[in-house]
Write a sequence for this structure.
């Protein structure tokens, strides 16, 4: 019996052929699979993004609010902050938005027929995040501005869709320090069972009491602690304070020098709290009249205001809330209503509006500059140099038609305030309208800066005024050195007024007080000049007195009650008026020039100013407004280069170079155009040009 092996000449099996062919073309196959996978992934991601960016009919906006999620101005986030927050256990990653962005999103949703309501979740986040955002809660003026926007949204939707189809839902586990209880109008309102706070569409009564307690603590407890600290330091080291205040209502030095709140300052504080109390109770009565009674809401609130705080069950029985839910039930409501995030809606809506604006034509551009916190010298996010540079950058931007200076500051350094005030004058000298918008507070140095703005706007609950000056000079007497066994020898070649070991006496004290008087006179003089008021009237409303904006409007310290959104619209109106005036001026000069040339038989050429300053078309009224924040974001390498050199001097030099280059380039272009036209027409006579706007240089004092 014989066996025969495989025939070498026979073709290999099909499987073997397939494997060999696959291996031989492995690179092509891998590349093709990669292309197919990438295309499929891109298509799936694109379709998912399209679905996310599609605003469907009957959409409800989901608004997640935590302490620190709404701010006046974003200050950027360093890599270290992002990493620490990413690895923070239990921390909720809530997007930070500015107050203007949130209000603009609500305004856009008001006019969008696809949106039928807002669901706001104000439950507290993790303890770690609360610690990170301590002090980042919204103030009363900001809360009121949000409340007005939501009230306007609710009324518009109810008028258009009917009350039954509008869904306004708010949820919180407990109020705590979250004061975003700002919903106007009636709706489904909830609070976590067992919580001590209540949620409703309006500023809650118990939160109002907490707010009063906060003010009492702000006024009394720090005074107690600082006063005791000063007295203890005085006993231990014989330290003392030399203070001067202009005038009796200026309370900043009383914290360090008085054992009791002076009568004028107590009277001032009581008047402010009375004004806020009346406004808050009025808003609450308006928004809760359905639960508290159509005609008994005010009297019911007057009774309840003395009974808080309330547990959730008590708040529901009292009519302060409509129901009780837990967080998981609120999540189910969000899922059932197919809610879209408010911040995501804003991004989608901005893309839609950008396309609409491109079709409509030109829009008014408003630049916004922020000043938040204590006014201080130097750089930093809101230092005097940074704010001045931002104003200068906005004024030098040829696309900007007007500027809004948003201030949320209780004052600060006199020199820094004067530096920023001079930058405001520079903006006006450039012919650009500038509007001051006040946040929670714009007093003392904050008001000093805004005196020469074209308009001043503030929310009714803004604290402003405090037109006065305070100076505090601590010193250590010789008794301390005797107690410590230290001998200090002092040699002076001039005045001893700057020595911390020397009290002011005699002529030094007289000069010190005269300097404070001079600063007060300069402050009141600026107010009289900028606000066009009689000096005697300014003196009557000054004296360091703090005003609620609702009262300040009646005495002429502010022009109009309104928040950031209204301030931007007012600035746009002023910018449009400026452009129309410029167009009329240019066209008038052009007509005169054309008439003069027509008499001489010369064809005139359009001036560089008309070509490069004015847009081709101007809207007849303010429609779409484009907002640009200054200072504009810069690339990392540019910021790194600026940090390694003298920013201020180099920025001035760069502005000078840009100015000269713009002048030379414009004139060369005009000369070339004129030469070509004259050559083609055979005209030898010189054509008169209209003088163009000059770019000036800011000099910081």
């Amino acid at each position: 019996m014989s066996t025969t092996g495989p025939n070498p000449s026979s073709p290999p099996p099909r499987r073997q052929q397939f494997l060999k062919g696959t291996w031989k073309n492995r690179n092509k196959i891998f590349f093709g699979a990669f292309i197919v996978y990438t295309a499929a992934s891109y298509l799936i991601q694109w379709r998912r993004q399209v679905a996310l960016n599609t605003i469907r009919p009957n959409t409800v906006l989901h608004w997640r609010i935590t302490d620190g999620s709404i701010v006046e101005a974003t200050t950027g986030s360093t890599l270290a902050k992002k990493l620490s927050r990413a690895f923070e256990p239990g921390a909720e990653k809530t997007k930070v938005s500015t107050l203007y962005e949130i209000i603009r999103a609500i305004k856009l949703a008001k006019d969008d027929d696809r949106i039928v309501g807002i669901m706001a979740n104000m439950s507290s986040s993790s303890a770690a995040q609360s610690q990170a955002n301590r002090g980042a809660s919204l103030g009363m003026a900001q809360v009121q501005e949000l409340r007005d926007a939501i009230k306007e949204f609710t009324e518009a939707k109810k008028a258009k869709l009917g009350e039954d189809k509008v869904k306004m839902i708010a949820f919180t586990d407990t109020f705590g320090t979250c004061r975003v209880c700002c919903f106007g109008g009636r709706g489904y309102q909830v609070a976590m069972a067992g919580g001590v706070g209540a949620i409703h569409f309006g500023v809650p009564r118990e939160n109002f009491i907490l707010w009063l307690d906060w003010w009492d603590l702000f006024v009394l407890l720090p005074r107690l602690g600082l006063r005791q600290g000063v007295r203890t330091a005085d006993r231990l080291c014989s330290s003392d304070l030399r203070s001067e205040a202009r005038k009796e209502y200026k309370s900043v030095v009383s914290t360090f020098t008085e054992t009791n709140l002076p009568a004028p300052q107590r009277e001032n504080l009581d008047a402010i709290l009375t004004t806020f109390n009346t406004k808050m109770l009025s808003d609450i009565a308006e928004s809760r009249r359905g639960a508290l009674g159509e005609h008994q809401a005010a009297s019911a609130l007057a009774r309840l205001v003395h009974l808080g705080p309330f547990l959730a069950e008590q708040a529901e029985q009292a009519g302060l809330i409509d129901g009780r839910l837990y967080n998981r039930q609120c999540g189910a409501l969000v899922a059932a209503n197919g809610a879209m995030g408010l911040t995501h809606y804003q991004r989608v809506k901005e893309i839609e509006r950008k396309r609409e604006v491109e079709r409509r034509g030109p829009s008014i551009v408003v630049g916004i500059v922020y000043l938040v916190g204590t006014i201080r010298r130097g750089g930093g996010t809101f230092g005097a140099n940074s704010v001045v540079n931002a104003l200068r950058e906005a004024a030098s931007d040829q696309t900007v038609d007007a500027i809004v200076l948003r201030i949320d500051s209780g004052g600060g350094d006199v020199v820094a305030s004067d530096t920023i005030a001079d930058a405001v004058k520079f903006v006006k000298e450039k012919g650009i309208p500038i509007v001051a918008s006040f946040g929670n507070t714009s007093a003392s140095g904050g008001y000093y800066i805004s005196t020469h703005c074209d308009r001043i706007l503030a929310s009714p609950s803004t604290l402003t005024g405090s037109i006065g000056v305070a100076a505090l000079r601590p010193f250590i007497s010789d008794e301390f050195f005797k107690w410590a066994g230290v001998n200090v020898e002092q040699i002076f070649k001039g005045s001893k007024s700057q020595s911390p070991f020397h009290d002011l006496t005699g002529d030094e004290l007289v000069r010190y007080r005269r300097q404070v008087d001079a600063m007060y006179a300069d402050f009141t003089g600026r107010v009289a000049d900028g606000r066009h008021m009689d000096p005697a009237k300014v003196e009557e409303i000054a004296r360091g007195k703090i005003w609620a904006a609702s009262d300040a409007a009646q005495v002429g310290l502010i022009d109009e009650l309104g928040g950031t959104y209204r301030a931007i619209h007012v600035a746009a109106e002023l910018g449009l008026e400026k452009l129309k005036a410029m167009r009329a001026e240019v066209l008038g000069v052009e007509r005169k020039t054309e008439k003069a040339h027509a008499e001489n038989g010369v064809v005139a050429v359009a001036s560089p100013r008309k070509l490069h300053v004015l847009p081709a078309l101007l809207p007849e009224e303010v429609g779409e407004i484009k907002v640009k924040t200054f200072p504009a974001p810069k690339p990392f390498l540019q910021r790194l280069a600026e940090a390694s050199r003298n920013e201020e001097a180099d920025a001035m030099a760069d502005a000078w170079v840009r100015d000269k280059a713009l002048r030379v380039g414009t004139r060369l272009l005009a000369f070339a155009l004129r030469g070509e036209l004259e050559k083609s027409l055979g005209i030898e006579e010189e054509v008169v040009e209209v003088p163009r706007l000059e770019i000036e240089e800011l000099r910081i004092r």
About this structure: The longest helix spans residues 564-600. Residues 217 and 223 are 9 Å apart (CA to CA). Residues 126-135, 190-238, 603-613, 680-701 have pLDDT under 50 and may be disordered. Residues 360-567 form a domain with the 2-enoyl-CoA Hydratase; Chain A, domain 1 fold (CATH 3.90.226.10).
